[in-house]
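pasting input
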Amino acid sequence: DTGVSQDPRHKITKRGQNVTFRCDPISEHNRLYWYRQTLGQGPEFLTYFQNEAQLEKSRLLSDRFSAERPKGSFSTLEIQRTEQGDSAMYLCASSFGTAIDQPQHFGDGTRLSIL
Amino acid sequence: EDKVVQSPLSLVVHEGDTVTLNCSYEVTNFRSLLWYKQEKKAPTFLFMLTSSGIEKKSGRLSSILDKKELFSILNITATQTGDSAVYLCAGGGSGGSNYKLTFGKGTLLTVNP
């Protein structure tokens, strides 16, 4: 069990640029979640995949955000035309099981800083 | 809208003290209450509670859920400096095939030697 892996760990970019983050869940975990966490706050749900299907997106996820999970393995989160307010830690989590309420295990996150 | 409120937001204690962290929740189609510990990186899973009144224990940490009053507590006995972290509470609710966690802001615990 190698844990949830996220890449890159840090990303600094200028406002208006596009960025893409990658998440590799724990092997065989069929559920994958993206969260955003800002300073002093708990993680906020962004989107959820069961295998390759994206089943829910938060209202927080504007049209500039898109997520994919091709073949139900790794996932990518892309932010287009980044804005200052996008600066945050982006966390990925995964879980496994036929029952939906299994504990989610988190990666170390990607910290995004917008200049 | 789902809501999880933790108290206190921060707490400073001395090694050896016992602490109690509180979590109240309002979560649609509630299924479970989870506690995580977050140091500088990923939140680390501690407990998942689904039934009222049944205490879960792991070493010096324990937690219990009250589904009637919609709250949970996390107790840490004989605190150590390594317990210093943000403790996050999350309510898990289901909607269709999704299971979504709503987190509180966390309690920042500082344990001084």
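fyi The mean pLDDT of chain A is 91.
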